[in-house]
Amino acid sequence: MVGIITQINKPINRTMTKRVLYCIIIFLAILSITLGYLLIINYLTSGWGAPVIQTVKLEIIEGNQKETLYIKFRAWGLAGNHEEIVISPYRDSLKNPKTDYIIYGLTQLYLDNSHEKVELIIPQDNISEPNTKYTNFVIKQYADVSDLTRRYKNNQLIKIDLFDEQNSILIIQKN
Predict the structure, then answer these.
(1) Among residues 59, 57, 51, which one has the least CA distance to residue 72?
(2) What is the pLDDT of residues 82-129, one digit of tens each?
(3) What is the pLDDT of residues 38-81, one digit of tens each?
(4) Facing residues of 158 across strands?
(5) Which pairing describes strands 118-123 and 137-142: parallel, antiparallel, or unpaired?
(6) pTM score
(7) Residue 172 contacts by C-beta under 8 Å, 6 or more apart in sequence?
(8) In this predicted model, which residue has the larger pLDDT, 118 or 164?
(9) Do 72 and 85 meet the contact criterion of CB atoms below 8 Å apart?
């Protein structure tokens, strides 16, 4: 019984405890540096977090005149949670606030072909309008999204699907 008590009251070897603690800290530092390096290499080489860009070409043909708009969707960020839609007469430029409509965030776009000019209908959102207007297109903003859904279901509107590769070109013939 006396031997057990003296072993419990024995002083702790502090140098041994410090060595173990230092080894654990060094191991965790090496592990975190290695994992960080692997994540960065994976991010740079695999396209993870790279911008996703989809483009829909919209053509309106009226007699001998043809006007083309490009609707470009771009998502970027580590989780892909930064989104914008750019409506532009130019295919190559990503966005130009002087000539393009820029919609921040992901939203649904519709076309209404029943008027003299084709209406591209956008729910009111965070939008930047250009200085110039288009000739055969009218961009309209609607606050009532449920009305747009009802009109689409009644075949009064055409939905523009930015993620369907079969609908990468929409051609509208006006008489």
Answers:
(1) 57
(2) 788 888 888 877 788 888 888 887 777 888 887 777 888 877 767 788
(3) 877 766 665 555 566 788 888 878 778 788 888 888 877 666 67
(4) 111
(5) parallel
(6) 0.63
(7) 58, 59, 60, 61, 111, 113, 118
(8) 118
(9) yes
pLDDT tens for 119-158 read 888 777 677 888 877 777 787 888 777 787 888 888 778 8
Token reading at 78: 């580590």
Cα 32 from chain centroid (whole Å) = 29
| 111 close to 158: Cβ distance less than 8 angstroms | yes
Tokens of 128: 């930047």
Residues 26 and 59 in one domain: no
Residues 84 and 63 placed together within one structural domain of the fold: yes
Range of the domain at 78: 52-174
Let me know whether 93 and 159 are in one domain: yes
Residue 152 three-state SS? helix
Of 136, 139, 129, 77, the residue nearest 103 (C-alpha): 129
Rounded to the nearest 5°, which phi and psi values hold at 35? -65, -40
- DSSP states of 2-48: HHHHHHHTSPP-HHHHHHHHHHHHHHHHHHHHHHHHHHHHHHHHH-T
Which of 172, 125, 119, 121 is CA-nearest to residue 150? 121
